[in-house]
Amino acid sequence: MNELVVSELHAGYGGAQVLHGVSFTVGEGEIGAILGPNGAGKTTLLRALSGMVKGRGSVRLDGVELLGSSPDTLARRGVAHVPEGRGTFMPLTVEENLRLGAYVRRSGVDADLDRIYGYFPALKPRLKQAAGSLSGGEQQMLALGRALMLRPRLLLLDEPSLGLAPLVTRELFRIVRAINEQERTTVVVVEQNAHLALGIAQQAHVLETGRIVLSGTAARIRADEQVAQSYLGYRV
């Protein structure tokens, strides 16, 4: 089981506190959308979940406490983080980037490369091409593919649509939903495009100034005009 339970999570940088007692749950094999304005603490939340930022409180995956573990330890436990800006290793080839995603594994890597090309067929002809020469959409696909090489139990996505054309964004979200459905990977996605995020998520949580101010099913939040205008920046 890959249920994520976050309880009273506090985190920040140095003396600056960013998250103030954040609590939410994402069910096993579900997609949870984290929404909110710029500066709400969404990126800090994902960094705390992946061990990049120290925090206090509790973060449990399948009942096992994750908080306090290093990013490397969390990767070995199946937590994959695709950061804002993709984090692609530009001088390395597409294949080298993908193989880096499987650095904690010793078997099945070649088979998983074929699995990734099934999700992202545009990457296969570019195996030996430097990642820095790819388009923005291809780089985002590569970053997601690299995370999937870990065979994650929990996938953290930070602003996957950032800088992408609408058509590319819709295709990327279609693939994320397919991954979730076919592999039962639990996903937490931070996304400014609330409409798209709510379209693939089962649960949604609105973060404002480091606190969860609203939680519910994605369908209910998406349909609530007052919520949409107050927190999500669009009209239903």
Automatic annotation (TrEMBL):
One of its GO terms (biological process) is L-amino acid transport. InterPro entries: AAA+_ATPase, ABC_transporter-like_ATP-bd, ABC_transporter-like_CS, BCAA_Transport_ATP-bd_LivF, P-loop_NTPase. Keywords: Amino-acid transport, ATP-binding, Nucleotide-binding, Transport. Gene3D superfamilies: P-loop containing nucleotide triphosphate hydrolases. PROSITE patterns: ABC_TRANSPORTER_1, ABC_TRANSPORTER_2. It holds the Pfam family ABC_tran. Residues 4-234 form the ABC transporter domain. GO terms for molecular function: ATP binding; ATP hydrolysis activity; branched-chain amino acid transmembrane transporter activity. Belongs to the ABC transporter superfamily. This is ABC transporter ATP-binding protein. It comes from Nonomuraea glycinis.
